[in-house]
Amino acid sequence: MPAADQQNPLVRTDFSDDETWEALCTAVATPTEEDFLACVRFVDDPASVT
């Protein structure tokens, strides 16, 4: 896994639905049948979107 500064940020911009955010994070962090895994870092901080 690349270092955090080499990963693409997946930035949460809507904080109204925690369940959907968690489902998205799980889906993105799960390898595909072809063993592809997205190289992302999750940004879950309201201060980062102001």
Short descriptors:
alpha+beta, 2 strands
Q: How many strands appear in the DSSP assignment?
A: 2
* H/E topology pattern: EHE
Structural class designation? alpha+beta
Record the strand order, biggest sheet.
Answer: 1-2
Helix content: 10-25%
Give the termini distance in whole angstroms. Answer: 29 Å
Number of helices: 1
Give a short summary of the structure:
The protein has 50 residues and is of the alpha+beta class. It is built from one helix and two strands; from the N terminus they run E-H-E. The protein has one domain (4-49).
Descriptive notes:
Helix 1 (18-28) links the parallel strand 1 and strand 2 (40-43). The mean pLDDT is 90. The chain has one domain. By secondary structure, it is of the alpha+beta class. Helices cover 22% and strands 16% of the residues. The chain has one helix at residues 18-28; strands at 8-11, 40-43. It contains one helix and two strands.
Blueprint (SSEs and pairs):
Elements: E1 8-11, H1 18-28, E2 40-43
Parallel strand pairs: 1-2
